[in-house]
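Incident log, entry 3
Record: Small ribosomal subunit protein eS4 (239 residues)
Problem: checksum mismatch between cached and fresh output.
Input:
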Amino acid sequence: MTRHQKRLSVPKSWPVERKTATWTVKAGAGPHGEAGVPLLIVLRDVLGYVDSRKEANYALNQDSVLVNGDAISDVERPIGMFDILAFAEREEFYRVFPDEGGRLSLTPIDADAAGSRLGKIVRKTQVTGGDFQFTLHDGTNVRVAEDEAGEYATGDSLVVDNETKDIVAHFVYEEGALVTAVAGSHAGEIGEIDTITVTPGSGDNVVTVSQDDGGFETIEEYVVVIDENFTGDEEEDDE
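Fresh output:
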């Protein structure tokens, strides 16, 4: 298996220039599937903190780069939607967020916000003993007691504490909810759900999203429920 990836064939979410060179690093096994961006690309091409794989390996060996609260040692570790990157020595913290066009971008956040991350529930299953397990969009599993599981449903979003793995916030997928599109032609756009149209059979449910200057329509799979703390508006208000 090659350790390289042709730039022209990388997923649209990867924040790399496609025609400056032939090859780039290939994402390793891990969360986010094929859409995950190798950490090396984030450190080198996005942030400019390193110039090479060797420098990136050195930085990671110092336990100076945390992803979702954990020190990372693999430069090929996939980074994806809503991951939290922390550089403690620099006192810099970022949330991975969709940009217009579907590319992943880094949104600066404060240290308190870096202690937890958001995930969309994509699967809900009952496990041995009666408890329920929720699988989030990045593969993370969260376990909830049977008597509490009824308030959660697929499509909802959870904010999970990076250290304890406890649920610290819950955003319901429903009409009126604030959402961002994370894929498709409207990736990166934010608005409120106007209507949810359930499609009979195996077709995708359709979501109509309203915005101040119009709106858009997309499929259910492409939207994630957020709140105003994920839009960046609160940072602008503090300036």
